Amino acid sequence: MFVRVVDEGSFAAAARSMRMSAPSITRAVAGLEDHLDTQLLVRTTRRLALTESGRRYVEDCRRILAEVDSAEAFASGAFVRPKGTLHVTAPVMFGHLHVLPVLGEFLDLHPAVDARTLFLDRVVHLIDEGMDVALRIGFLPDSTLRATRVGSVRSVLVASPDYLAEHGPLDDPEDLVHHDIVAVTRSQSPTVKWSFGHDQSDGPTLQPRIVCNTIEAGLRAAESGWGVTRLFSYQVHQAMLAGRLVRLLPEREVPDVPVHLVHVDARHTSAKLRAFLDFAAGRLRTRLDTIAEAFAD
Predict the structure, then answer these.
(1) Other CB atoms closer than 10 Å to residue 171's CB: what's the count?
(2) Cα(35)–Cα(254) distance, integer angstroms
(3) In CATH, what is the architecture of 84-145+262-294?
(4) Residue 174 gets which letter from DSSP?
(5) In this structure, are strands 181-184 and 210-212 parallel, antiparallel, or unpaired?
(6) How many Cα neighbours within 13 Å face the side chain of 215?
């Protein structure tokens, strides 16, 4: 009940989600605080906030509940045959283009499994947000997560043929200061700096003509001829095949960035997760290898 209150943000919302009365949830959490002899939540008329003890305790609660779920799944046979709900997270565009089709194929093979996806352009904490597996693009920090590499992507500088016909070619990173820049970023900074070459040396400081907070918007802006942008190879692959975008300065691109499937290193791994990891790794490698071939030096 305490974890549900934290997740839902209020006693009333937690009560609705658990089909219980709000007073019963309130009494249960108050009883928990009495038992622990510490305050877990700060209650105001507008919101709930975790105390320092509450933040630590909710992390332990999530771990304990995950262990209970694991034990129940093991006892019920979910570690023998794939069944149950698989929770998958990935970056938005990669999720739409590649994870969702692979997940659909997997579900066709395993009728006893259903799936929930969380596609967000931020790092999702697997335990806190109840995820079984995440696709991560980038170099992984040291952690307790298990990782399976499925390929790599690279940052690619692109512009539309119409834009280049009007504004001229781009022969060196320094030439970017004379071009319209489409930046894809959530930063509030008025300038951007892009690295170039295998030594990842900084290029010129650029003042974007357009700043987009989503990849889709930046991609559409570049395809519409509004400037030069920089995106991952998988994001521009289809537009380049269709001739809507042209690759620029390929000899100055930075090294490839790895792509992994990651999951919690649990004592038991459910059959649904094992099966998905084996299936998805092969399918994603094939997809990423196809893209990599199109961008081979």
Answers:
(1) 9
(2) 56
(3) 3-Layer(aba) Sandwich (3.40)
(4) G
(5) parallel
(6) 18
Euclidean distance between CA atoms 113 and 29, whole angstroms: 34
Q: Locate the DSSP E strands across 40-112.
A: 41-43, 48-50, 84-90
Which tokens belong to 56? 């630590």
Residue 127, Cβ density class (10 Å: 0-12 exposed, 13-18 middle, ≥19 buried)? middle
Instruction: Compute the distance between CA of residue 162 and CA of residue 296 in angstroms, rounded to an integer.
Output: 25
Q: What pLDDT is stored for residue 77 in this prediction?
A: 59
Domain ranges in the chain are 2-75, 84-145+262-294, 155-252
Would you list the DSSP string of 212-270? ESSHHHHHHHHHTTS-EEEEEHHHHHHHHHTTS-EEE-GGGPPPPEEEEEEEE--SS--
Residue given tokens 């290029």 in the structure block: 203
What's the pLDDT score for residue 225?
Answer: 97
pTM: 0.73
CATH 3.40.190.10 fits 155-252, yes or no: yes
What average pLDDT score do residues 30-50 get? 88
Q: What fold is seen in the domain 2-75? A: Arc Repressor Mutant, subunit A (1.10.10)
